[in-house]
Amino acid sequence: MAPLSILKYAHELLAFFYAGALLAGHWNMLAVRRTTEWKERAVLLELNQRLSLFFSLIPLILLGIVGNLLAAQSGFRMSDTRALQISTALWLILVILGAAIDIPVAGRLAAMARSTSTGPGNDPVGWNGHLGRWRLGNALQLAVFLGILWIMISPWRA
After folding, report:
1. CA triplet 24, 30, 34: central angle to 5 degrees?
2. 103 CB contacts (<8 Å, ≥6 apart)?
3. Contact 32/42 with Cβ under 8 angstroms?
4. Do 71 and 25 form a contact (C-beta atoms < 8 A)?
5. Does a structural domain hold residue 95?
6. Which domain holds residue 75?
7. Is 158 buried (19+), middle (13-18) or exposed (0-12) by CB count in 10 A?
8. Residue 158 domain-assigned?
9. Most buried among 37, 70, 143, 149, by the most CB within 10 A?
10. What is the C-alpha separation between 56 and 4, in angstroms, rounded?
11. In which residue ranges of the chain is pLDDT below 50?
């Protein structure tokens, strides 16, 4: 088993990767809404697609695994610690939200922007719906992540 300090560092680093990817995706989407050039939108949305997979979902999965290892090594047991049970359940919700909403919708938006960048400048069919779903998924992920952070920094009660 890895030393406790290495697990703490890995847990914090992965949390920053995940939170950074969420915020970067949000800021990219704000830039997408401000620009009228579809080529620029395509680049930003392709970046969001990569952020969603490589800097959001993968670190999130590793974050949950390392977090549970860290809790176990710190003496917390899943069967006895309610906060650990709740944070693990919320982590699973985050993984589902990322895999079911964030990654597929980011891919669709990037594909729509790529196809429109070579054609007419009108919004593609379904653009606003996909944009709304991505924003909802991102907001839900941020809210659930903040809930997990609150549980982790509040005093633990066995």
Report:
1. 140
2. 49, 52, 53, 57
3. no
4. no
5. yes
6. 4-153
7. exposed
8. no
9. 70
10. 24
11. 158
